[in-house]
Amino acid sequence: MIASEIAAVLKINSNFALSAHINPDGDSLGSMLALYNVLKAMGKNVKVFAGDSLPSNYSYLPGYDSIVNYSEDMDEEFDVFIVVDCGSFDRTGKCSCLSEKSKISINIDHHLTNSLFADYNLVDSNSSAAGELIYQIIKLMGVDIRKEEALCLYTAIFSDTGGFRYSNTTSVTHQIAGDLINTGINFSNIYELIYRNYSLNDVKIMGKALSSIELYSDAKIAYMELLLSDLGDLNLEDVNTSEFIDYARDINTVEVALFVKQVKADEYKLSFRSKNYVDVRKICEKYGGGGHAKAAGCTITGELCDFRDAVIKDLQQALEDGGR
């Protein structure tokens, strides 16, 4: 069993580097920091790296302040490089070169499109979140899950299931969540921290994004955008946009929503959400991205006017095909 093999590797080695995908979310950060905290508690030397900026709404996670923005001129070498919630080394951004500075690589993920890129690959698309897999590994190591790890793991699972609302939620998900709650974490506060934790600027910019909503295909497709020109003097990194797309998806007639966010003059991040039958992962794969059937994303370089209509046509075709 690969999970048991990974647990053994973690127990016998001493020097670890951890990373996750660029633009980290609650699952990647929570999973990575749960592993960081448990390995530190075991007396291991552990470094946790990010390939780009971190979302501030997860700053309550134990170990968040220990995350270092990786620089390629760092020359430290490691026994084990662990990548969580990520489909390939490339998706870790600048951290990808850590694979060359480590003796062993481990890949822990729940995405169907994972390329099985490491020496050890624990990939289970039936798991609701990478946090479920990290939970299993910790249990196999025979280590007690403390409040620190429980808070990180609950955040990982809670965020990637949309607060247990998405169809990837299973009975196992709830069993794990119950075990984590039993450690005494303030689980009810996590909802407020993740989903109800907007700054005034966040709300103002949300208004900009909401006002851009356009509907297509008999109001089954919702399109929303946020351009750099909408931000005024604000820095995009200071704005929490992670849940904006849910407002478009939640329109009662909508089956699939698309949120286009401009991050550079010629770079756009696209987020997709569907309700019932459109597999947005397939559309994202066409543009070099990926994710889940009902929640996926990709990055497109170029001019918005050159790809906007093409992506909407892809969504319209998916609707006509019944989501196939």
TrEMBL record:
Domain DHHA1 residue range list: 226-313
Keywords on record: Hydrolase
EC number(s) given by UniProt: 3.1.-.-, 3.1.3.7
SUPFAM superfamilies linked to this entry: DHH phosphoesterases
Molecular function GO terms recorded: 3'(2'),5'-bisphosphate nucleotidase activity; nucleic acid binding
Residue intervals of the DDH domain: 18-157
Domain of life: Bacteria
Listed PANTHER family: BIFUNCTIONAL OLIGORIBONUCLEASE AND PAP PHOSPHATASE NRNA
Protein name: Bifunctional oligoribonuclease and PAP phosphatase NrnA
Taxonomic lineage: Bacteria, Bacillati, Bacillota, Clostridia, Eubacteriales
Gene: nrnA_1
